[in-house]
Amino acid sequence: MLSSTMLYLAAGTVTGFIFSIRMLLLALLVLLIEAITLSIAFGASFVVGTIIGIVALQLGYLGGVYARAVVERLAGSRQDAKAPRLR
Question: What is the pLDDT of the chain when averaged over all its residues?
């Protein structure tokens, strides 16, 4: 279960860094379908793992959005430093 949680966290981070919120909603929809399928096939005990996966995906997404904001801010400050100053 730890390895799948780490994969969800990594997928959320990449999604947050590269894509918009629509991709996160699509990933959450896939996880919801996975939770429903697992609960039907194996019982309610497997739903806990998918809920942990959903939380890990969302936390990874927030981390990716934060990382993207930091990179954009650093890139913006470098461009401002290179811009010619008008007197």
Answer: 79
pTM of the entire structure? 0.66
Q: How far apart are CA 85 and CA 19, in angstroms?
A: 34
Distance CA 80, CA 72 (A): 12
Contact 51, 1 (CB under 8 A): no
C-alpha to C-alpha distance for 30 and 22, rounded to whole angstroms: 13
Domain ranges within the chain, ordered by starting residue: 2-82
pLDDT confidence bin for 22, thresholds 50/70/90: confident
Label residues 71-85 b or e (16+ Cβ within 10 Å = b): eeeeeeeeeeeeeee
| Distance (Å, whole) CA 65 – CA 59 | 10
